[in-house]
Amino acid sequence: MTTAGIEQIAVIGAGNMGHQISLCAALAGYRVRCADVSPQVLQKAEAFADSYLVERVAKGKLAEEAAKRARANIAFTASIEEAVGDADFVIEAILEKLELKRELFAQLDAICPPHTILATNSSYIVSSKIADATKRADKVCNMHFFNPALVMKLVEVVRGPHVSSATAETTMEVARSMGKTPVLLKKEIYGFLVNRVLTAIKQEALYLHDMGVASFEDIDAAVENGLGHPMGPFRLMDLTGIDLSYHVSMERYRETGDMALKPSPTLVEKYTRGEWGRKTGKGFYDHAKDK
Ligand code: 3HC
Q: What is the pTM of this model?
């Protein structure tokens, strides 16, 4: 069931998160336009949508009619104007770089209808750092999904001081309509809830690895078998993207000058080699044979 007043959703960025968020929205019955500047990324996202829906039907997890409806609900485009022209709700899922996000939000503000809510799926950046690039700060908020977005139930909604209660409530409602379990943060805080906890775990794991205390495989095995996490921190970085971990550390280090926040030597090495995890076929682990 969709949320009253919201019929069309635009997702900007068809990468790691955006392609799956688009499918979550299409499966929930929204009309979805998913945009990306890269034709290759768009092509990959569209191919994923096709194969994912077919596989869900084959697995008996989705009725054929529902799959057909979801596929008809979603369109992929290279044009931001086309994606957001009629959108009631926009979810931005582009690179984790503040300046890029600010530029995009200024552009969205200029082309979206006045009622449109502009949500950011940023992993760490609070929306007040972006909202003032628009003339609708009350309609700009954080809506943070988790990877893989089709599977993970949590969505963090962050209500900064500029966000109206109507925007926060609608965003929670849109998340619920996608079958998610949203939590509301009543105050802005960098990294929100989960990524603050996860960053502490990742930093410690990288420190133990760089100190030669244990291999990354054994640190993962320890966290998986000792804490019951489905994936250890290295396996998880491969899933969420080593480039993301690197950019976030660098941005934080540049902002604060705190040496402790600098990316660890292993992270720098992986990043510069282009070993970014599943998306490049290799990260800490080899993913060449992954589907
Ligand atoms: N995309 C879509 N669906 C996927 C998927 C993917 N990449 N990977 C697995 N799935 C689905 C499978 O289709 C299957 O669905 P079904 O049970 O309905 O048939 C289900 O997930 C289980 O898959 P598998 O049996 O193949 O594998 P696992 O049981 O090992 O589960 C996992 C895979 C769900 C990824 C699990 O390992 C997990 O929960 N890992 C931890 C993920 C996590 O912590 N995510 C949060 C990261 S932090 C983050 O996202 C924040 C951001 O800001 C960086």
A: 0.95
